[in-house]
Request: fold
Amino acid sequence: MATRVTSTRFIGRVAELSELEAALADAAEGRPSLAFLAGESGVGKTRLLAELEERAETAGARVLTGDCVDLGEGELPYAPLVAALRPLAREGDEALTGLPGPARAELATLLAELGPSAQGASRAAPEDERGAAQRRLFEALLTVLDRLGRAAPVLLAIEDIHWADRSTRAFLAFLARSLGTERVLAVATYRSDELHRRHPLRPLLVELERDPRARRIELGRLDREELADLLTDILGAPPEGDLADRMYRRSEGNPLFTEELLAAGLDGRGGLPPTLRDALMVRIERLPDPAQEVLRLLAAAGRADHALLADASGMEPRALRDAMREAVEGHIVVVDGEDRYGFRHALLREVVHDDLLPGEQAELHLALARALERRPAPMGGNAAWLAAAIAHHYHRAGEQPAALRAAVRAAAESERVHAYGEAAALYERALELWERVEDPAALAGMDHVELLTRVATAHRYNADDARGETMLERALHELDGATDARRTAELLGELAMAQWALGRGDKSGATLEKALAIVPAAAVRERAVLLADKVKLESLQSRYAATIELADEALAAADEAGAAEVRMRVLNGLGFALIEIGEHDRGVAALREAIERGGGSAVLATSYTNLADALNLAGHGDEGATTVRVGLKDPRVKDHDRIWLHLLDAEIAIDRGEWTEAAAILSGPSARRTGTGATLVNASLRRAELALGRGEDAVARPLLDDIDARLADSIEPQFLGVAGALRAELERRAGDLAAARTAVEETLDRIEFCSEDLGRLARVAAAGAAVEADAAMRACDLGDADEDAAAKARLEGLRLRVEAACEGERPVERAHLATVDAEITRAAEASDPARWAAAAAAWDALGRPYPATVALWRETEAHVAAGDRESATTGLETALAAARRLGSAWLVAELEGLAARARLRVEDAAADGGEPAADRAREDPFGLTPRERQVLGLLASGATNREIGAELFMAEKTASVHVSRILSKLDVRSRTQAAAVAHRHGMVG
Reply:
């Protein structure tokens, strides 16, 4: 017979514990991470986590713990996070009490101990504010972790995330994206055997476990020797005879099963319980009847304090105390830090609850719901959890009228704490119950259209615009636009923005037009909001003329309604559009007015972003950079609304050649908190652009692949144009000119006929010009006259596009045109150094050193081809120095290869103090890549392109690309000449 239920020693799991301790040590050095501890029920996840917590505390780390509650899918919002933070609040920890006012107010929505809370997002809030409330709460939570980590490393332990509510799952996703240098290790446990195919945790784990800072540790069962150690500790002596073998065969190494078999007095002989659940029931059934009865109530409650059990059970105080003492002394029930009863292991609760008859379940849940309703109304987040628990128990009891009323009330409380996923689920439940009860409107306190609208709003706040769209369409179907025009117009406006978020731009515009057509004249504010939304959509599609034309009407409507913030939103779109069409002063004045008048934090941040972006696009990079810095320092702009300013700061730094600074911004915690949607695309574009400039093509490609997938239905030129130009450059540099041309053509098709974004059109067309110049040169090398002519014709067409974009004072577009004109000479195999010098000067005048250095490289090539070695040497020295300052590895390699091929002696000591470029290239005087050297070896042996492809496991077309590049680098016209050069220089055997 066992002397205790569990082992007093930590047994096995050495490798797993070491990995977690190493992760905690990394966190202490400012390298935060997430660890997911997975395993079947009873395998020892909690014990391993407890050992880690004990060692972390011994090492001086701060440990925060919380666990998820199985009380219906996502019904107790933020339960583990509140459990982790509540001890800090009660202790008055400075990490909480010393928070800035706004962050403290956000956290007070969960922790009433912190004082007055922030209000939940209003459904009438501007579109830019919607859904931001939860993000502000998450920022506040991360701020607490960061503040704690400054004093000591933080271990945030969350158990049983297979039961996590939607908001907790959303926070884990936020944490994965946002951790930068905080000294935090987050460890979450889950049952791998609980994750069925459609479990809501599955997609989150797939997303998070791809992150290089996340790790998954699968906890297996104990082996035979470890199980023997476990038995020795529990029994107080080594197991006798073949007990260890018998228990190992029966439990298969599951520690909890082993413990329960021993605790039940079974030793592996005779008729044993067939499953772990049966073994657990053996001990439950040995308790006295009163103890079993109260355990059934506790199983329905999940966790409960003594007062709840007393109220719901109706037991005499003495009988209840005796029953609970039996359960505690039997190691079935434990008491947590908040004086609540709970089962020692979740499986104990499950077997008790599953053993209840349907009628018993309904009776117990009904008793709990009524007992909870009799409690005084709590403050803050406690009100949301109480309301959610009442709704859950009424639902499980089958009391449909009460369940409907409670679901609506709980959904409203969830919205108050920004738990929009939970609110959506509860409103959905109310919808399901609507047809099953009498007078549902009286129970819900609203009509069916309002309930549908609330469901839609909650889904949209929870980033589920597709479901929000469906609910809004249902609500509109039930409304009579003729008799309730104001309400119909308002819902149509909501629907239009949902459709835009889903990438349905044309449909969104048509919906807005319909709303504007029916909105009553008396509904001045509603009309102003609709017009502001339309201005925004026109601006995002780069339809600048339409934006300006509509803005006057929208401003008048905003002024008539006295809606100052709506006016600021209109000025945002108007100012940007004016600058883009060349009315610089008017545009700047409009955006300056928006900044001076302020409005909400999000609108103000957008004003700064639009002004700085428009200035940079117009060629005023220094002024744009200054505007960004002013915006970042403006105290009216809250931290959580600064993300686009940070990303624009990085974008302008990339343009200005400040790549080290740009990389620091993009790797910092502020830029990592990019969320989803347009913000994530923006951040990824900046990272891809920087990687491509540096020559890190392997980094840029997956980023662009992900961007392309996210932009599949987009009609926003600000993203499509940049992504298309970057894709074209990536594929061109890889030698896949067909893929590069496709990227250019598809991008132009998507943006050319639906926008007036001349800057992005010029950028894409200029990228296409480089592609066609390469194509013409390749065709000439291969003697393909038809393809040569076709490439030059496409190049002329692209030039016309760029030229059309240069109307008025547009210095950036004119720099693109100068570059295209130089590319035309390169395509004709008469690359003109004067043309390239003009392009370099145009980019230099704009303070954009990267395209200037690329142009200088091409100018140097042209000097070499013309035999002007003195000019070539001077240009090469200048270009190499500039490329090294930038950190453009690919451009440095190209320039060094050019120096080697042209036999130019360039006195430019390398960044590390090494030999001059020509000397460094002596082993490979032509700048060939390792792959190109392999191809050259086969080419020199007489292999055809098909044979080269077969030998090196590449397509014949790819082999042809490599051969063409080799001919160019060796400065020869034929394969025979290339073979001769290779043999002469000893480059092949």
